[in-house]
Amino acid sequence: MNIEKDEIEKINKMSHEEMCRLWRFAPSGHPYFDTSLPYFKIFEKRYLKLGGMTPQISKSIGWE
Prior knowledge:
Elements: H1 3-13, H2 16-25, H3 39-49, H4 55-61
Helix pairs in contact: 1-3
């Protein structure tokens, strides 16, 4: 498997809370949020399908 497929597989296996945590706390320049890479659209589509940031998850993950 190539790196791109590995990363897409990781995104597809992430839980809703894991995605919200990454959305909130990812360091600047994280490849999943680089719109020039294919990961952003894949991540965003799954993130929104799962419901995005909910108040319950937001409270659960807090702020670091």
